[in-house]
Amino acid sequence: MTPRLTFHHVGGPRRGELDEVALPAVLGSGPEANVQAPGAAARHAVVFEREGEIVLRDAGSGEGTLIDGESVQEAVLREGDVVQLGPGGPSLRLGAGEDTESLLEPAAWDRPGGPLGWLRGLLRDAAARISPPVRRLVAVLVVIAALTAAWSGLRARSLRLEVERLQEALREVQRERVRFHARVDEQRRKEEAERAILTAQVEELRGREEGLRRQLEDAAASEVQSMRAELAATRERLATLESERAVGERIIRDYGPGVCLVQGAYSFHDSQGRPLRLRLDEAGNGQKDADGNPLLDPEGAGPVHEVEYLGTGFLVDRAGLVLTNRHVAEPWWNDSEAQSLTERGFPPRLSTLRAFFPRQAQPFPLAVERISEQVDLALVRCDVRGRRIPTLPLDRTGRGAVAGQPVIVVGYPAGLEAILAKADAAVVREILGATGVSAGRVTEALAARGLVRPSTTQGHIGDITQSDIVFDAPTTQGGSGGPILNRTGVVIGIEYAVLAKFEGNSFGVPVRHALALLAPGGKRTR
């Protein structure tokens, strides 16, 4: 059966009248119009059935058609809709005719009681009332919005993971800072204990000297000679101890400013020059192998695998030559991990090598000048022009090192921990709070505050061989490359190693090897 509709004239010359027509129907003022609407275009709009829906389409009126005040080109009609034929033109309210009511009711899924029914109905009506070009534009915008939302979601997830990685990195920095503070406190306690022991030794000897002197006054003639001998021995030990301490103070005063802290860093690169980076898992954490070693890859998304280290050197001429160990100038030398990476096609490359001299606020970049192929020695060069940095005298006689004689070792054993242990606790907290635990940044902060100062340790020569001076002055990592001076204040060797798990045996390269390296024709690096 042909659908029929009723149109109630609610505005215009025919207000209050009712037309019932069959579909399709023409609305307008012309003779062919099924619904006469004076004031409208002759053929203003057409109403027809399409796929079970009642559709209104503007027939090219030139004035426009409005539904419930909204201009449309084509729209699905519902019972009660008010159609206005042009702005200010006649208005008609749509009603159902016989067997047409079902076509004017929303489908079940569009009903307010259905899931999201109100939204579906709104979208459906809006789509029906929008022209095809606008629909296509809306579709494109919807696709763009969906893609933008998906990208935003992925970006948000990536940012969340990055934030989590940064939070974990900050937590690790804080943990390392706590450990660093603990090492500084331990070094401070150790140095205080050593000073206390030395003071106690001096006081003990002085007390013993005084006691022997008193006993000597009251002793019988037969005891005088032995007590005088013991008193003389005690006085000699006291004089030796105080003399050695005075020598150490003189050496650190005169030559300490010429002993530098060497700070360096290196990384490993592939044939294309890309550095090895830490490989990360999906959660952004560093991956490790079965032995707990970090997995490294040029394609890794983590930070560059950089090895930081510290050592000691000392100025030997005004041209800027600094003596140190080969394993300070080439820190991967004799290192098994570095050798393994090199064999896999990732040779090492220095990223930082610089010297921090006492009383100098800025570091001095270092360049490797010569290395020794026979012993652990190297010459590096820096520009010290215009700076008042003392050079250390070298023993050129070959007779400066004597077994049993005292030695003074100058350098930076225990590295930054020992330097920070000498500083005020508040300054230490300020530096670490501002720089973290990066060796380079901490050292720069120390230099800027004038806190880079070497330490001295004292001992005695135990043995001398062709390749080594063995001595018992305490030392540890960071002191490598430091000068070993005799009590006359000349360098007799260069420290390079300590015998692990056997306190009291440290090793230095005899100075004659350094003289050979300094001589014209010494081995140069490539």
Task: Describe what is shown at a glance.
The radius of gyration is 46 Å and the shape is rod-shaped. The chain has helices at residues 101-104, 117-128, 132-218, 221-255, 326-329, 336-343, 415-422, 425-435, 439-448, 511-518; strands at 4-11, 18-22, 25-28, 35-36, 45-50, 53-58, 65-67, 70-72, 74-76, 82-85, 91-96, 259-268, 277-278, 296-297, 306-315, 321-324, 348-356, 364-365, 367-371, 378-381, 406-411, 455-464, 469-471, 483-486, 491-498, 506-510. The chain has 526 residues and is of the alpha+beta class.
| Spans of at least 5 consecutive residues with low confidence | 107-118
The largest beta-sheet arranges its strands as 18-17-12-15-16-20-19
For this structure, what is the CATH class of the largest domain?
Mainly Beta
Overall, the morphology is rod-shaped
Could you describe the largest sheet, including whether it forms a barrel?
7 strands, antiparallel
Number of domains: 2
- CATH-derived architecture of the largest domain: Beta Barrel
Rg from alpha-carbon coordinates: 46 Å
- The fraction of residues assigned to DSSP E strands is 25-35%
Describe the structure.
The protein is an alpha+beta fold. It folds into 2 domains: 4-130, Tumour Suppressor Smad4 (Sandwich), CATH 2.60.200; 176-518, Thrombin, subunit H. The protein is built from 10 helices and 26 strands. A 7-stranded antiparallel β-sheet has the order 18-17-12-15-16-20-19. Strand 19 and strand 20 form a beta hairpin. Helix 3 packs antiparallel against helix 4 and helix 3 crosses helix 7. The radius of gyration is 46 Å and the shape is rod-shaped. The N and C termini lie far apart (101 Å). Residues 107-118 have low confidence and may be disordered.
